[in-house]
Amino acid sequence: MRFYETLEKYINACGSSNKEISELSGISAETISCYRRGVREPYPESKSLSKLAYGIFRAFRICGTEISEEEILSELSSSLYRSTETDAEGLSNNLRLLMESCDITNNELARNICFDPSYISRILSGKRKPSDINKFITDTASFIASKAENGENLSAIAGVMECKTQEITDWDMRIRKIISFLSSRKEYDPINFGSILEKMDEFDLEEYSRTMKFDDSFSLPAVSIPGGHKNYCGPNEIKKSELDFLSLTLASDSKESVISYTDIRINEVMSDKNYMRSWINGMSMLLRKGLDLKIIHDMSRTTYEMMLGIETYIPIYMTGRITPYYFVTSQSDAFHHILRVSGAAAVAGGAIEGFPDSSHCRISTEKNEIRFFRKTGEQLLSIARPLMEIYRKDRLREFSKLLNDCFEMPGTRRIYLSAPPFFTIPDEVLESILKRNNADETKKKQIRNYLESFRKKIDPVLVNELSYFQFSIFSRDEFAVHPVSVIIPEIFYEDNLYYTYEEYLAHIRSTALYLKKYPHAQLDTSARQAFRNIVISVIGDEFAVISKSRRPSVHFILRHPRLIDAINGFCLSESDECDE
Fold first, then answer.
1. What tens digit of pLDDT does each residue of 324-333 get?
2. How many CB atoms lie within 10 A of CB 117?
């Protein structure tokens, strides 16, 4: 049985319409219509297929029929026209769709990937399978990605692959999604966000600041640059240039911001613990000096390097004094670059991929060269995008405006919490908690006003959008060991407002009753507790907020597709583990 026939069987059996399945699954009614007519199919192991199976499962549950979500997903998967392993027929169907969407001819594709046009024709007809299918798919994906630079083709490709245009504006993610569409193999490992979130959850800015003050004895060696220039060659020299740059910047009276970019491989550098300790101390001293840091990250790094880089920057991110960026277009895989500039010095250099000894750079303290490289750095920033936006208490007004905009965003909400959502708390429970925790009157008023405002804004969201709320329920013994506090990170309230166990249970009961009024709202209390100071909110597949409630209270707004995928992957895998 073909996919559309299997889908038709299920939808008829539960007596639902395209619109109803759309509301239950989060997939557009138009896409479901295409599925039922056989015009389009989801690809194996995709989010769309999982969402569809879940929507049908919910439809059966509403009509009183018992059938497992796993059974539905399994049958839908097995009936897909293309198999989970790339085959000639599956490749030809998907390749044809992509070529048609961008008006790519056989001759044009053949010319750009060095194939014979007649061979391309046989691949499209399903009669031939490339001998090196991985290379064929990768080269084809790169070419199709290049054709999507204009908005019309980008939108067309997104439509074929059933994703949002914003998901493939980034070059790196566009190629990966095209590769995934042409074959089921995974081209890259997702970032494991678990360890990063754990470090964020446990991070204490006050303790970190005390450590930095305790280490006041630390200082970088004074640097002399005879003639205003100094050259560095090889990996060890590159590390020395980094520390020399920090030393020159710290010794200067300049308050100009620091602009930094490098795509040189960092795994060998990061394994040098003595160097990393000096570098982190030096970066921390830049912040204590009051300098703003503008860092352009290389998002095409390997997963391993990505993890190392993000984890290293966590203490710096927590201060709110860094603005991270990334490039949308791909950078060269052959020649890597380095650029650092402050008010005191400039560093410029590069390296050849695979040849560490080729790495080199030059430090200059000449004013004309510093001006030139600052202009170069600013030009780089002008073509980069913010990797994330970081909000501390001093940006409360800006963050409040962003929150208001979030209420207007369409898309499924997934909220991962360490306690029940604040907006469902009974008023009498809140008053009891505020009184017992000795909150001052000004704070009480701020909290009450926020709660009233939030409830008004969340109501239309719960009515119109699929919303999932997830937190675990502690036993009385667990609660006694680790008391739970009300979480209100949105107003940067850092004081602990502890529940009694009875108040905690009352809030949980209230949450279940509150959300039961909304058909689109789902509550999951089966997941194991992952964090105590972090709330994760994901809207659709293109916007996420990581909120740390205290020590410090800070919010990270993420928009990069790779980071959103990483967060969703971590949170969903945590839920899957609990289900098992």
1. 998 866 566 6
2. 13
